[in-house]
Design goal:
about 525 residues; alpha/beta; Alkaline Phosphatase, subunit A; 2 domains; 7-stranded mixed sheet; about 30% helix; about 15% strand; globular
Length: about 525
């Protein structure tokens, strides 16, 4: 009898210890494409693209309908995700192709210090110079990019992203959770012209954004872009299969998104809907109920806080703390549909994008997005938003004669779409679309996203929306002041001083300096 009681007591004690044992910490997989607007995944209803891997993550977890990048440019947006701070809060890292001050700690470094095995493949943080900041490696982690493959089209990176993820898993010490950054360079330009048609895609399936003319040249360019989204998705699918085969998928927090919008005129490098509205799907089989669609407005700084909370890692910096709110409670709750209180607005910003203006000047924008409205503040409306219209001959650095009309606009990636707009500059059917992309803009812009997702009709001066404009302008300014944005505090000329480490073009000096 005594022996039986002893066994029962020991069994109960062991059961209690087992119940109290902490759950294994999750692996973290962040997959981030390069230049993909939110609408271009089949889970969002796009008929011209097939993204089964993204759709799987959305089906197994949560599909976010209102996720927004920190900036419409890759380098600052990625820095915001890595640090959990708005772009105007991280100095040089908040603009394009500068440096990444080491005092701003990244989540991969924090996880590595807490026992995670950390790595990345493809495009981590960049473009920019992280070495000049005193860092020993890319802020995304240790690079795994040795495996190569042969892509089906020119312009696609030869990096075997999924193969390098497998190499990373092989190198992982036994028992360690991992944190991996999959950064494709797709669908960043350039594209093989006609690759969409070669892949069997049809022009008729394309939905042309309202800020672009509906022409076959535009449709074909979009098809080429969609082919590269599918390449990104195919490697994600192989990674999910590898995790499933190894038994790791159920305990892996998978976050799939992009860094900024599609590389077309008036999208990328603009704080409009097609520049900052990102695809986002998150799954974690062991913890997150699947099959849900969420309307909450989510910023990239929220993703950083989510990763750290899921991993059980505290952010140590009191001087440079996180500013986002973790999504973990939302993810694990089973909730869907209606917006949670406090998640009804996000911020976005840009400074310099490419080398696009005289003296490397920026085009500073700040924006606030609510469920219905987008309010944009242009701090230098006397500058050209897409870059100066004319560039000096680029073969004579520091001088040269002015180029041809429309030779500038260097904040827009070179493309058949841009060429079509420029060729039609004298065509009254095309010129309005070119002006939408390159013409100067007022200091304030307000768009009703429900009625105008293409951001074509500025309501800032409409008396019927005066109260909305004032409310959002005040809300944006309060948010910027509370977080110390130099553009609000003292004019922000510090942004003009941050060095650029990518090539710098020369432009004619303006008659009147801004």
């Amino acid at each position: 009898m005594m022996r039986y009681l002893t066994s029962v007591v020991l069994g109960l004690a062991c059961g209690a210890l087992s119940a109290a044992a902490p759950a294994p910490r999750p692996n973290i997989l962040v997959a981030i494409s390069d230049d993909q607007s939110w609408a271009h995944a089949s889970a969002y209803g796009c008929k011209a693209v097939r993204t089964p891997a993204f759709d799987r993550v959305a089906r197994d977890g949560v599909l976010f309908k209102n996720a927004f990048g920190a900036s419409p440019g890759c380098s600052p947006c990625r820095a915001a995700l890595l640090t959990g701070r708005h772009t105007w809060m991280i100095e040089e890292a908040g603009t394009h192709a500068s440096s990444f001050p080491a005092k701003y700690v990244t989540y991969p470094d924090l996880l590595e210090k807490d026992g995670y095995f950390v790595g990345y493949t493809g495009k981590g943080w960049g473009p920019g110079d992280w070495k000049i900041s005193g860092r020993g490696r890319n802020p995304a982690g240790t690079e795994f990019s040795g495996m190569k493959n042969k892509p089906p089209h020119k312009g696609i990176n030869q990096n075997d992203y999924a193969g390098n993820f497998s190499e990373f898993l092989k190198a992982r010490p036994a028992g360690k959770p991992f944190c991996f950054w999959y950064g494709a360079t797709e669908p960043h330009r350039g594209y093989e012209k006609g690759s969409g048609a070669k892949a069997g895609k049809a022009l008729a399936d394309v939905s042309v954004p309202p800020f672009l003319p509906d022409a076959s040249e535009i449709r074909s360019d979009i098809l080429d872009y969609l082919v590269e989204i599918e390449w990104f998705d195919a490697h994600l699918g192989r990674m999910l299969e590898a995790l499933e085969k190894s038994g790791e998928l159920q305990n892996t927090l998978v976050i799939v998104t992009s860094d900024n919008g599609m590389p077309f005129p008036r999208a990328k490098a603009n704080c409009y809907e097609y520049g900052i509205h990102m695809p986002l799907a998150i799954c974690w089989g062991a913890r997150v109920p699947g099959g849900r669609v969420v309307e909450d407005l989510v910023g990239f700084v929220d993703l950083t806080a989510t990763i750290l909370e899921a991993a059980g890692v505290n952010h140590p910096s009191r001087e440079f703390p996180l500013v986002g709110r973790s999504l973990l409670a939302l993810l694990t709750s089973g909730r869907q549909g209606a917006i949670e209180p406090g998640r009804d607005a996000v911020f976005a910003a840009r400074e310099r994008h490419s080398s696009s203006r005289y003296n490397n000047w920026t085009y500073p924008q700040r924006a606030i997005r609510t469920p219905r409205f987008l309010y944009v503040r242009n701090f230098r409306p006397d500058r050209w938003p897409a870059g100066d219209p004319v560039v000096l001959s680029e073969d004579k650095k520091g001088g040269g004669s002015p180029g041809t009309p429309h030779s500038g606009y260097k904040d827009i990636d070179g493309s058949p779409s841009l060429e079509f707009l420029i060729a039609g500059a004298d065509d009254p059917r095309v010129r309005p679309f070119l002006d939408l992309a390159v013409a100067k803009r007022p200091a304030e812009e307000l768009f009703d996203i429900r009625e105008d997702p293409g951001c074509l009709k500025n309501l800032a001066d409409d008396p019927g929306f005066a109260a909305t404009r004032a409310e959002l302008a005040g809300r944006l300014e309060r948010g910027l002041r509370e977080t110390g944005d130099p553009r609000i505090l003292d004019g922000g000329e510090i942004w003009e001083s941050y060095p650029r480490y990518s090539p710098i073009r020369e432009f004619p000096e303006p008659k009147e300096s801004p």
